[in-house]
Amino acid sequence: MSPGAEKAFPVSWDQFHRDARALAWRLAGIGTWQAIVCVTRGGLVPTAIVARELGIRIIETVGVASYHDYKTQGSLDVIKPVSHKVIDLNGGDGSAVLIVDDLVDTGKTARVVREILPKAHFATVYAKPMGRPLVDTFITEVSQDTWIYFPWDTGLAFQPPIAQSGGG
Ligand SMILES: O=P(O)(O)OC[C@H]1O[C@H](OP(=O)(O)OP(=O)(O)O)[C@H](O)[C@@H]1O
Ligand SMILES: Nc1nc2[nH]cnc2c(=O)[nH]1
Ligand SMILES: [Mg+2]
């Protein structure tokens, strides 16, 4: 998404745990997978929660980075590829694989990972409209002009009273 006027969607650890567990509940009703491919780094925390709930112990990573500057997407780099041992499980093309990421925004990251694992099931906790067609399962949709603030990127800070900030 482009920088500028946008809404903020701050997520606490508690809320994130609940949303990631809701994702696991939904996935449990859809299918079974032998391995998770975690899209690092954002996928690390939801992967830990989903893997625990679904009893999946084969965890592979694919490293994709594109937001090199805060809120601005640049070139897409696959920093760490997926092991062929995992791609080839159960007939190949990622058919035994669940891909987990924290969110899908423009869908560019998801598109690159899907090319590597075309038969995998793609799951994210949050989705924005542009990226939504790229994911098979997600929990909460937020608007395209919303920036999601994760608990690992934020901390407690003083909030000026509404009356002093021009609000109301
Ligand atoms: O749908 P897109 O517009 O491609 O954006 C979604 C991706 O952006 C973030 O990762 P980022 O590239 O910031 O790297 P990180 O996971 O290491 O923080 C997020 O974790 C997703 O992987
Ligand atoms: N933290 C965070 N990272 C992103 N990467 C792409 N979109 C987002 C977002 O809304 N929040
Ligand atoms: Mg990411």
From TrEMBL:
<comment type="subunit">
    <text>Homotetramer.</text>
</comment>
<keyword id="KW-0328">Glycosyltransferase</keyword>
<feature type="binding site">
    <location>
        <begin position="41"/>
        <end position="42"/>
    </location>
    <ligand>
        <name>5-phospho-alpha-D-ribose 1-diphosphate</name>
    </ligand>
</feature>
<dbReference type="GO" id="GO:0005886">
    <property type="term" value="C:plasma membrane"/>
</dbReference>
<keyword id="KW-0472">Membrane</keyword>
<feature type="domain" description="Phosphoribosyltransferase">
    <location>
        <begin position="12"/>
        <end position="158"/>
    </location>
</feature>
<dbReference type="GO" id="GO:0052657">
    <property type="term" value="F:guanine phosphoribosyltransferase activity"/>
</dbReference>
<dbReference type="GO" id="GO:0032263">
    <property type="term" value="P:GMP salvage"/>
</dbReference>
<protein>
    <recommendedName>
        <fullName>Xanthine-guanine phosphoribosyltransferase</fullName>
        <ecNumber>2.4.2.22</ecNumber>
    </recommendedName>
</protein>
<dbReference type="GO" id="GO:0000287">
    <property type="term" value="F:magnesium ion binding"/>
</dbReference>
<keyword id="KW-0808">Transferase</keyword>
<dbReference type="GO" id="GO:0000310">
    <property type="term" value="F:xanthine phosphoribosyltransferase activity"/>
</dbReference>
<keyword id="KW-0460">Magnesium</keyword>
<feature type="binding site">
    <location>
        <begin position="101"/>
        <end position="109"/>
    </location>
    <ligand>
        <name>5-phospho-alpha-D-ribose 1-diphosphate</name>
    </ligand>
</feature>
<feature type="binding site">
    <location>
        <begin position="105"/>
        <end position="109"/>
    </location>
    <ligand>
        <name>GMP</name>
    </ligand>
</feature>
<dbReference type="GO" id="GO:0004422">
    <property type="term" value="F:hypoxanthine phosphoribosyltransferase activity"/>
</dbReference>
<comment type="pathway">
    <text>Purine metabolism; XMP biosynthesis via salvage pathway; XMP from xanthine: step 1/1.</text>
</comment>
<dbReference type="GO" id="GO:0006166">
    <property type="term" value="P:purine ribonucleoside salvage"/>
</dbReference>
<feature type="binding site">
    <location>
        <begin position="147"/>
        <end position="148"/>
    </location>
    <ligand>
        <name>GMP</name>
    </ligand>
</feature>
<dbReference type="InterPro" id="IPR023747">
    <property type="entry name" value="Xanthine_Guanine_PRibTrfase"/>
</dbReference>
<dbReference type="GO" id="GO:0032265">
    <property type="term" value="P:XMP salvage"/>
</dbReference>
<dbReference type="InterPro" id="IPR000836">
    <property type="entry name" value="PRTase_dom"/>
</dbReference>
<dbReference type="InterPro" id="IPR029057">
    <property type="entry name" value="PRTase-like"/>
</dbReference>
<comment type="pathway">
    <text>Purine metabolism; GMP biosynthesis via salvage pathway; GMP from guanine: step 1/1.</text>
</comment>
<dbReference type="Pfam" id="PF00156">
    <property type="entry name" value="Pribosyltran"/>
</dbReference>
<feature type="binding site">
    <location>
        <position position="148"/>
    </location>
    <ligand>
        <name>xanthine</name>
    </ligand>
</feature>
<keyword id="KW-0479">Metal-binding</keyword>
<comment type="similarity">
    <text>Belongs to the purine/pyrimidine phosphoribosyltransferase family. XGPT subfamily.</text>
</comment>
<feature type="binding site">
    <location>
        <position position="148"/>
    </location>
    <ligand>
        <name>guanine</name>
    </ligand>
</feature>
<feature type="binding site">
    <location>
        <position position="102"/>
    </location>
    <ligand>
        <name>Mg(2+)</name>
    </ligand>
</feature>
<comment type="function">
    <text>Purine salvage pathway enzyme that catalyzes the transfer of the ribosyl-5-phosphate group from 5-phospho-alpha-D-ribose 1-diphosphate (PRPP) to the N9 position of the 6-oxopurines guanine and xanthine to form the corresponding ribonucleotides GMP (guanosine 5'-monophosphate) and XMP (xanthosine 5'-monophosphate), with the release of PPi. To a lesser extent, also acts on hypoxanthine.</text>
</comment>
<keyword id="KW-1003">Cell membrane</keyword>
<feature type="binding site">
    <location>
        <position position="105"/>
    </location>
    <ligand>
        <name>guanine</name>
    </ligand>
</feature>
<keyword id="KW-0660">Purine salvage</keyword>
<feature type="binding site">
    <location>
        <position position="105"/>
    </location>
    <ligand>
        <name>xanthine</name>
    </ligand>
</feature>
